[in-house]
Amino acid sequence: MLIQEAPLLLFSVIFAVSGQFLLKAGALKLGQVTSTNALSHILSIAVTPELVLGLLCYAIGSLTYILLLTRVDLSVAGPAVALSYVFSVLVGTFVFHESLPSTRLFGVGCIVCGVLLVVWQI
After folding, report:
1. What angle do the packed helices 83-94 and 6-30 form, to 10 degrees?
2. Domain residue spans in the chain?
3. Residue 108 and residue 26: Cα distance in Å, rounded?
């Protein structure tokens, strides 16, 4: 992957992570789904701003990813967007105060190393 494609990759990752953040925030607003409230929760998705914006972010991220695929091999672009997993872990940890056990941190490190190996051109 060339430096010219980096902004497309970055935008794709940013919108994917933003979508995940907004979907989580919206899901927290809805509360836990049970068999008695499932239908009302499904209907509430359309009127919960965080969920609507989260879906919009995913749509924009998908469009950006498609543009990236016009310029980069799937074998490079696919693994490269795995960086969204890294940022999702960071958002979960620092925004939603989720735990970050050492095994998860090790996994994030493996993802970063793997992405570097895949996109690195020799």
Report:
1. 40
2. 3-119
3. 25
Distances from the Cα of 108 to the Cα of 30, 58, 67, 81, 89, angstroms: 29, 22, 26, 13, 8
**For the chain, how many residues are written?**
122
The model's pLDDT over 20-78, given as tens digits with 9 standing for 90+, comes to 999 999 999 988 888 899 888 888 888 999 999 999 999 999 999 999 999 999 988 88
DSSP code of 96?
A: S
Tell the burial category of 61 from Cβ atoms under 10 Å away from its Cβ (0-12, 13-18, 19+): buried
The model's pLDDT over 6-22, given as tens digits with 9 standing for 90+, comes to 899 999 999 999 999 99
Residue 1: what pLDDT? 60
